[in-house]
């Protein structure tokens, strides 16, 4: 990875439009599989210029390049179960924004999320999982509580609230990302993916001009 700031030619809105168009192709079974040939591979040997960073759940059904119909070098991807923010993921996101100058951060959750389900179950039965899975659940618990305050108790509704909470939490924790949003260099899109039909639905945003 380069250590100098990459010159980015795409705006946050243009980046979101490209992802939205790619997802529409995926949903309609019209995928183009761009930037996946040997020429593209060779062009990326010495540098990269991703136009989006995906901070998503690690679920195997949530392959970011596939559901947005993009290819090599298009997206910088960071994944943890339940898109839980930790120091490593936060540092990775700051790297993408500050050094790669990525104009869009996507928080990518999905329906029927096992990590969110685990956090709801722990809240309801009072039993926490063992090992470091407990750490995941503890990070998701505030989103479960925030959802309940709004009368939301189902998993899929809680997933959407968790995406929104993660979006806000990311900006609260990272002055680097908050500054980039204030300067218009990047934006955050909170997205909930639907496993059944493949749609990536925008549920929150910071810094995007959606008019």
Describe the structure.
By secondary structure, the protein is α/β, with parallel strands linked by helices. It has one domain (12-206): Beta-carbonic Anhydrase, Chain A (3-Layer(aba) Sandwich), CATH 3.40.1050. The chain is 45% helix and 16% strand. A five-stranded mixed β-sheet has the order 2-1-3-4-5, with helices on both faces. Helix 5 (114-125) crosses helix 6 and helix 6 (133-149) crosses helix 7.
Q: Oligomeric state of the chains?
A: single chain
The helix/strand class is alpha/beta
How many structural domains can be distinguished in the coordinates?
A: 1
CATH-level-4 superfamily name: Carbonic anhydrase
Write the layout of secondary structure elements.
Layout: H1 12-27, H2 38-43, E1 52-57, H3 64-67, E2 75-80, H4 87-98, E3 104-110, H5 114-125, H6 133-149, H7 155-173, H8 175-182, E4 187-193, E5 200-206
Parallel strand pairs: 1-2, 1-3, 3-4
Antiparallel strand pairs: 4-5
Helix pairs in contact: 5-6, 6-7
Binding site for Zn(2+): 57, 59, 110, 113
EC number: 4.2.1.1
Family: Belongs to the beta-class carbonic anhydrase family.
Please tag this protein with its features.
211 residues; alpha/beta; Beta-carbonic Anhydrase, Chain A; 5 strands
Would you kindly provide a brief summary of this structure?
This protein has 211 residues and is α/β, with parallel strands linked by helices. It is 45% helix and 16% strand. It starts with 11 loop residues before the first helix and ends in a 5-residue tail after the last strand.
């Amino acid at each position: 990875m380069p250590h100098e700031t990459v010159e980015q030619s795409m705006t946050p809105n243009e980046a979101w439009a490209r992802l939205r168009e790619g997802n529409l192709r995926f949903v309609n079974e019209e995928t183009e599989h761009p930037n996946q040939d040997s020429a593209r591979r060779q062009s990326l040997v010495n540098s990269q210029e991703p136009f989006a960073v995906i901070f998503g759940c690690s679920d195997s059904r949530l392959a970011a390049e596939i559901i947005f119909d993009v290819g090599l070098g298009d997206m910088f991807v960071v994944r943890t179960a339940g898109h839980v923010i930790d120091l490593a993921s936060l540092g990775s996101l700051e790297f993408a924004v500050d050094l790669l100058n990525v104009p869009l951060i996507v928080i990518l959750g999905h329906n029927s999320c096992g990590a969110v389900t685990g956090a709801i179950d722990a809240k309801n039965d009072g039993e926490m999982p063992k090992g470091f899975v407990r750490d995941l659940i503890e990070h998701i618990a505030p989103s479960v509580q925030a959802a309940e305050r709004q009368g939301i108790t189902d998993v899929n509704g809680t997933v959407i609230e968790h995406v929104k909470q993660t979006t806000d939490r990311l900006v609260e924790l990272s002055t680097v990302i908050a500054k980039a949003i204030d300067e218009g260099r990047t934006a955050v899109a909170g997205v909930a993916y639907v496993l059944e039909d493949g749609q990536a639905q925008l549920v929150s945003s910071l810094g995007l001009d959606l008019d």
